[in-house]
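[09:14] KT: can someone run the structure on this one? pasting the chain below
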Amino acid sequence: MRKLGFVVVFFVLFFSCKEKKEHQEMPKEGMWVVELQVMDHQQLPFNLSLNKEANSTYSADVYNGDEVIHTNEISIVGDTISIKFPVFEGYLKGTFDETTIKGDFIQESLDRVVPFTATYGKTNRFELKSDAETSVSGIWETIFSPNTEEAYIGKGIFVQNNNSVHGTFRTTTGDYRYLEGVLDGDSLKLSAFDGAHAFLFNAKVSDSSLNGTFYSGNHFKEPFTAIRNEVFELPDEDSLTYLKEGYTKFDFSFPDENGNIVSLSDEKFNNKAVVVQIMGTWCPNCLDETKFLVDFIENNKDLELEVVALSFEYAKTEEDAFKAINRLIARVGVTYPVLLAQYGTADKEEAQKKLPMLSHVLSYPTTLFIDKQGVVCKIKTGFNGPATGEKFTEFKKEFKTLVTNLSNE
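[09:31] RB: done, structure tokens below
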């Protein structure tokens, strides 16, 4: 009888657990607000929608201003959900019920973990307490880390509609992507999240000035100040990096995924105009440039032009670095060679050692334009992507004119 009783209890427990599992609460479809816990007890919010597909799997969309990042790389095991983003290695992983997810934003190669909480049904990125006291629309001359050796300049470009604000900060080495937020009374709050970087800008607005703090994840922060200046412009990004004295040409020798060493002196590049992209798969500005290059090549097949990318990766092993490169190639449809220049670090000083003919590697991306004779005609530092609006439109026109002329020489 004792054995029979044990069997009965076992089956009762088994089937009750099975029934509970079959009726497990799943995350609700619709809009969520995700809040990352950054430094100084600040919350970095962004909007994410979860969508249930026909096959009962999930997809998600992340919203930053005019940008929508779509992913279908979502897995659910038990009460744990993982959301991986296109191209970048970062992912959200947490435990859930119908209306809450708690976990971490993880970037393994950088050993970074940022806690987060996601709440279903919230639509406001930032909670508003009062009407905007002024407007921040326009151009702002900005200094990050003022009065320090690390100081650098930026250009704030914002559009405000009532309390809502969107725009970006441009710097000499790129832009801070699609920022979205509010002006709450005299407090400016802007954020962006793309699966690689998590940015938060908080500032007090007083008359024609901004005084605030920029947070990047939970590992970095710096102060910034800004003043209104509608005619302010950054230095020409085409003059920041150049060939060192004594070098007349640029060259490299790095492996592709098959172990083949590729050099600029290879026959493939002979008598061709060449664009060399110094980049990393972890870099959002590099992703913007890569998408642009892929689109340009597709629509200008008649040009005698070759493009090659030199990738500097944080991944800790060569295998993981090529996994990241191949993920980029597959996701974006890259048709040009992406070579592994370095793994284990993307430190610019280390990159400089791999490319000793350059005066500086100041930014990812850095892009070289080389004519059919192998002469470097221009080196462009950074990339002003779609979030910069008119600057991006201007760049596209300049790029086409330049490479068309180099190709037709």
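[09:33] KT: thanks! The domain at 138-228 is CATH 2.40.128.120 (Lipocalin).
[09:34] RB: yep, looked fine to me
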